[in-house]
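Researcher: Hi, I'm a grad student and pretty new to this. My advisor asked me to get structures for two proteins we've been looking at. I'm not sure of the right format, so I'll just paste the first sequence and hope you can take it from there.
Model: That works fine. Here's the first sequence with its structure tokens right after it:
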Amino acid sequence: MPTLYDGDFVSTWKTLEEVHRDGSARSIGVSNFQVEHLERLAAETDTVPSVNQIEVHPYFTNDAVREYGQDHGIATEAWSPIAQGEVLDDPTITRIADNIGKTPAQVVLRWHIRRGDIVFPKSVTPSRI
């Protein structure tokens, strides 16, 4: 996260680049980076992040960061892809789900996949798992 370590994310990223170069990691990425953070990494380091894990869901599409990532080969991993469950009762999403015989969660996860987002849905509720 760019706000950790007193905002010194560039030196942290350079350390991760060393880990990547020595083969200890196949890829390296970031979390919650905005466009200005990604631009700073591009200007001051050698490696483009493989992934940026950001909050993305139908209520918060985070399009500027996603677009920057697409333009620079950075995959977007959707943090909180179902808005911590808030979308599950959304009238529009539930209507779509009912019309196609799917659950609201399935509809939203498919929306992410069609947009090209990486999603790792999780739940502590056995019926949702």
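Researcher: Oh nice, that was easy. Here's the second one.
Model: And its structure:
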Amino acid sequence: MRPLNYVEQQIVVQTSGHFGRRLPMEFCGDLFRRLSPMMTSSVRMAIEGSSSPVGAPPNWLRRAADVRVLGWVENETGGTILHVEAPPLGEAAEDIYRQSALWDTKPAPDDTALNVFARAAKEVRTGNSDSSLYDLGLLRRFRYTDQLFGRDVEFIDVPDARTTGTPLVRLDREVAVRAQQLTEQIPASRQVRVSGRLDMIRHSTRSFEMLLNECKPVRGVLENADEIEQLKSLLGKSITVVGKAIYRPSGSVLRIDAQGVEEGSKGSKLFAEIPPPISRRVPTARMRVGEQRGNWLDSFFGSWPGEETDEELLAMLREVRG
């Protein structure tokens, strides 16, 4: 695999201590430990349609999220300008970008992980409840930046495009607050059976698109990567998918996490549309142990986290206990 070209970009970090170019080591560790997973999850969400699938990150994602720190300087307000470099996504995920069938959320090939992360942050900050750039897993990461802004950081500015002079997107406590609000608006996922025509397959991301009644497209992500081979022979044919419908805060369908796919339609018009959500999530501030039935972990998190830090998991558990 040929070496990647890297593009230099800047991140502005304003701190209450006006650290400038003299950043404490502990602060650096905390900052980078939170930013890196959010960038990775943002890229995965934009390209795969899910921010935290089960399993190890694919090689293309590791390459795409390979952001390197070159150094830092102080700006005129005592803030810190981080000089970083990241590969263009079109090079890092070259095989994916060669495919002609692409999602509408897929970034431009010259975008970097920083740009994708910034756009997801912008969608959260503006409270866009019908966005395809975040899901519950990514919202949870934005929500827990509140722990970062509650200490040393006042705000972080990130470019949403590669072009020099591009307006910066601000990540601050407001984003964490908005992420919490959007999280509480997301309806609980529900088990569904849906029939339609298989219109597109993306082998590299375990994803597909099917057309429902009146040619309405719906994205799906296979939980079992081995089933992608089965889909190749079904392209253009009627299929029935069994899985979980994942909703946006607006209540519209974000994707289907497919547990199984079979050829043919069940015939009933009931399966030609994805049913609406049943209920909203219980706001975490009012959630107590004993108020949920069944698997309380799934009730609280939607699905058990896969990449959260110990600190974040403990904070989540404290919310459950009240």
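Researcher: Is there anything I should tell my advisor about the second?
Model: You could mention this: The chain has three domains: 7-185, 190-272, 284-321.
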